[in-house]
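Why do we care about 3D structure at all? Because function follows from shape, and shape follows, mostly, from sequence. That is the central idea of this module. The next example makes it concrete: a single protein chain, its amino acid sequence, and then its structure expressed as tokens.
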Amino acid sequence: MYGKADTHIHTSYSDGLMSPEAVVEFVANETDLNVIAITDHNTAEGSFVAQAYARRYAPRLEVIIGQEITTKEGDILGLFLTASLPSFETAAEAIAAIHAQGGLAIAAHPFSRRVTLNNMKGLGEKIATLPLDGVEVRNGFPANLFSNLWTTWFNRYRGQNLAAMGGTDSHVSYTIGSPCTLFPGRTAADLRQAIESRTVRPAGHFWTPLSIARSIPLLLKHRGLARYEQAFSD
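And the structure:
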């Protein structure tokens, strides 16, 4: 009786390649996920679109309003939000803003280093002291193999033993659901209760070599077009 959730998905509202509607259709038709969170960079608008679309066309799938929030100290996933949040100077400010909306704050890829493709930055050892609700210990990006292992160990033995979660960090359809979070139940409310009671667990695998080979040229092309459009608009 365990449900499956992917709590780290990007859409075209930030740097993903799929529209929120396309993500919902793919998840509903091609995966066994029960719950997803759309977590675009510094905006929750894509998750509102996805949630409304799912309620109409894919009622078995629940979409959490989410966002990946940028701070100078590292990235944080806000889940169960009610509105978009800005970027913040400190992680503590971002977590307070998430909690003020009644949301949950999850440390995204805490020990990841910045990489050209995904531009990740984690909170590192700050996960031991910040008032977080969970930690992404299994991020799908393959460069995080060792950082995932270190995150798992650090959270358990030197940190707060927070809810240990998995998320794909997907920007394309065919990586969605590869790593995931297992939780007792099937609904978004069940997932929230499991995070708060720390009864979730990470599962699944990294993006596959085929997924990587397919993703890199698409994402690089997308980034290049975005830079060109920004330069043109300036």
